[in-house]
Amino acid sequence: MSTATSSRPLTAPSPHAPAAGGARRRSRTRTRLELALLLAPGLVLFAGFVLVPIFVAVYYSLYSWNGFGPLTDFVGLDNYVDAFSGDVFRGSIGHNLIIAALSIIVQLPLSIGLALLLNRKLRGRTFLRMVVFAPYVLSEAVTAVIWLLMLQPGGFVDEVLRGAGLGWLVQQWLADQRIVLYTLFVVITWKYIGFGVILLLAGLQGIPVELREAAALDGATSWQATRHVVLPLLGPTIRVWIFLSVIGSLQLFDLVWIMTLGGPANASSTMATYLIDHGFKRYEFGFGSAVAVILFLICFLFALLYQRYALRRDTEGAVG
Amino acid sequence: MRRNVVGYLTAFAVVGVTVVPLLFVLLGGFRTTAQINSSPAGLPGPWVWDNYRDVLSSPVFWRLLGNSAFIAVIATTLAVVLGSMAAFALSRYVFRGREAFYTLFTLGLLFPLGVATLPLYLWLRQLGLLENPLGVAIPEAAFSLPITIVILRPFMHAIPRELEDAALLDGAAKLGFFWRILLPLSRPALATVSVLAFVSSWNFFLLPLLVFNDSTHFTLPLGVAMFQSEHTQDTAKVLAFTALSMIPALTFFVLAERRMVGGLTGSVKG
């Protein structure tokens, strides 16, 4: 102890610097170790199961491959060309786009209306919110089975329509090629409307009541206040909803698969059901990988463009 | 006043449209298939308990429930443990590349599990994880990481600097601060991300569909779809089965509603 302290000034002209430097270096090494310990497991998991599959898919997509044996049959971009030149796949993309467009045209106004309604001081408001949100919690599989049974020919829906004197409306809901996609859209709306409502309600709660009152004082009608004060302030929430809704529409699978398998005659096929049908069920894994990459690129492209042009002002520095 | 009348009428209609399908399933389970066929929109008369009793006394339902719970617990635990560690590093340390790491994780938000499933299947096959619950749980955890980190990071960041300084002055190591102070304080956010991870795992369909061939491994969503396609002639039993499989999710929702809603809306605000 005493020797150490007494000897130090001899060896080192400036006694504090090296010791402090050593401690700082030690603590910096320690910090690095801690960071590695904290970050590495998450990064490994994320890279190993989110990033790697994408790259693996790009690689497989360049081969004609039935999933067994080595990859020998290099076909370049043929799988991509094949996918885009097939009517069924092009039709599937169209179906996804129709669902996405319908969501924005139908679900968005409906969600906004319901959110405005539920934001009022109604009795039983909490209960109402829970009820509206409940279908969102159910799995798509359960939702699909429920509606599959209700839409059986001569089943619950038909019976209720006939009972209400609307028998002329009854259709082959899931068997008519012209109707099946819209039937599915109604089911999708039933399941997901609550999500939009809850999202928008949260947005509405962020808008001070005073703004509305001020508009009313200035002589604005209730509709004008909603249109010119509330809706613009809901903008960020609406833009996020549109983003989630389009991404969801682009990868629609569970509901369609269970209710129609993409049929009849591919009238309700989506990119994802096409992917599973052609890639997985028919053991065309090279081709399926190409479709997966296309699906991924479409989502990714949309996400980037949307972030760039629509969301940028809302979420600065968040994504992209 | 008239506005509110319209409001109540609309609310009533909404509740009807939402609840009637659920009642159709629950009540249908108390009818016989013959009753349902003769009057699809009728009420049970007489009430029949056999469907529910059959489903509850067969091992199939309980096995599906167990499989789903097992996978969801593993996926949630993995996502929350690894996610909170990463969020701690990304919120309370200053180092070069921090924002790059964060952006990398947030990219995962743009890349949903559904899109990745076929490539993931091929990858899992290579890793020998097919027909293995971990083959479903691990990827689910990986895909839950982004939202977990996106929710936890700002929460952990907002915890006052002074608390950390005080802990460090008292001789605690930085990791000790994480474990003893930051994590307990982050409990609300941890609950939210746990609920989100659990529910998404519980409901996920496509990955288990590809990974499991053997129906003893099936999860509840797969089981519901399978049961429906195997018993197309026995509508009443399918309804009972479906009704029972809704109960865990709905119960969970009633218990964790605030966390779930808070999480969804919180994640939007970033």
Helix content of chain B: over 70%
Q: What's the CATH first level of the largest domain in chain B?
A: Mainly Alpha
| Count of all domains of chain A | 2
What is the H-and-E element order of chain A?
HHHHHHHHHHHHH
Cα separation of the termini of chain B: 38 Å
Quaternary structure state of the chains depicted: heterodimer
What is the largest interface, and how many residues per chain? A-B, 91 and 92 residues
CATH topology of the largest domain in chain B: MetI-like fold
Task: Please state the overall shape of chain A, judged from the principal axes of the Cα atoms.
Answer: flat
Mean of the pLDDT scores of chain B?
88
Contiguous runs where pLDDT drops below 50 for at least 5 residues of chain A: 1-19
User: Which value, in Å, is the CA radius of gyration of chain A?
Assistant: 29 Å
Helical/strand content category of chain A: mainly alpha
Query: Treating each run of at least 4 consecutive H or I residues as one helix, how many helices of chain A?
Result: 13
- Main beta-sheet annotation of chain B: none
CATH superfamily of the largest domain in chain A: MetI-like
Q: How is the main sheet of chain A built?
A: none
In the CATH hierarchy, what is the architecture of the largest domain in chain B at level 2? Orthogonal Bundle
Residues in β-strands, percent of chain B = under 5%
- Helical fraction of chain A equals over 70%
- CATH topology grouping of the largest domain in chain A: MetI-like fold
